[in-house]
């Protein structure tokens, strides 16, 4: 499977055995509880307890003029997908907040996650943030964050 972070579409990759690759649309994920018109911004996927867990970057959408003002929490949700394509929409705001706190940050500071793994052997989540910032989100400055 692969996901498109702009359209929220999950695709199956076909033709691996023959090397005649093609993508087949499987599911289209929407923001928040699944009823929002906007596409879910897919950033990471992992498997836990037989379900595909699909997540976004885990940062609040903030006002461009004042990063302390939260405009939305659509990137704080994950999608649990079973093998039949049934989707459960789960608000992970509390989990993402705890991860931010464990990293020594407080809002409006942020982490942006693009790699998350469920480690079955440890029965633990492993997060590998792409961005770490002690200050509020700024689109230009964000590109310089490590």
TrEMBL record:
Gene3D superfamilies: Apyrase. GO terms for molecular function: calcium ion binding; GDP phosphatase activity; UDP phosphatase activity. Keywords: Calcium, Hydrolase, Metal-binding. InterPro entries: Apyrase, Apyrase_sf. It comes from the Eukaryota. Its cofactor is Ca(2+). Ca(2+) binds at residues 43, 114. GO terms for biological process: proteoglycan biosynthetic process. It holds the Pfam family Apyrase. Belongs to the apyrase family. This is Apyrase.
């Amino acid at each position: 499977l692969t996901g498109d972070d702009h359209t929220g579409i999950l695709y199956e990759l076909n033709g691996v055995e023959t090397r005649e690759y093609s993508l087949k649309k499987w599911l289209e994920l929407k923001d928040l509880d699944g009823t929002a018109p906007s596409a879910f911004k897919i950033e990471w996927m992992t498997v836990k307890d037989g379900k595909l867990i699909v997540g976004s970057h885990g940062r609040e959408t903030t006002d461009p003029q004042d990063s302390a003002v939260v405009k939305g929490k659509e990137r704080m949700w994950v999608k649990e997908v079973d093998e039949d394509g049934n989707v459960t929409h789960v608000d992970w705001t509390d989990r993402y907040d705890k991860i931010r706190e464990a990293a020594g940050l407080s809002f409006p500071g942020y982490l942006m996650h693009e790699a998350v793994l469920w480690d079955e052997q440890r029965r633990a989540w492993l997060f590998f943030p792409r961005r770490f910032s002690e200050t509020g989100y700024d689109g230009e400055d964000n590109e310089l964050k490590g």
